[in-house]
Design a protein that fits this description.
By secondary structure, the protein is of the alpha+beta class. It has helices at 10-21, 44-56, 86-96; strands spanning 28-32, 60-65, 77-84. The protein has a three-stranded antiparallel β-sheet with strand order 1-3-2.
Length: 99
């Protein structure tokens, strides 16, 4: 999956990669909630598209699964067996300088 440059949101990519990076060394399911996006107005489709983008790009290992929609506390997206790759760690260091 690729995005036209104007549609790709680097802030979303950073949040996805950084959350998985800080979950630990072992692969585990990671859910992304509204609160993870620091008050940014974002919808589920955008999060899912960006999550698929970082998986397809080799920045994360894992698979996008449909999140249960149980109301306002339901996740926007879930990555099953999420684990950041060395390429994902590298992009966090080089592009975002925050890790």
């Amino acid at each position: 999956m690729s995005f036209p440059n104007q549609d790709r949101r680097d802030d979303v990519i950073y949040i996805l990669l950084n959350k998985v990076k800080h979950t630990g060394e072992e692969a585990e399911d990671v859910a992304f909630y509204d609160a993870d996006f620091e008050g940014k107005m974002i919808d589920q489709a955008v999060v899912q598209q960006h999550l698929q983008y970082v998986i397809d790009g080799g920045y994360l290992k894992g698979s996008l699964v449909k999140a249960d929609e149980d109301g306002e506390n339901s996740p926007l997206a879930v990555c099953k067996n999420a684990q950041i790759t060395s390429e994902g760690t590298k992009i966090l260091r080089m592009k975002y300088f925050m890790v």
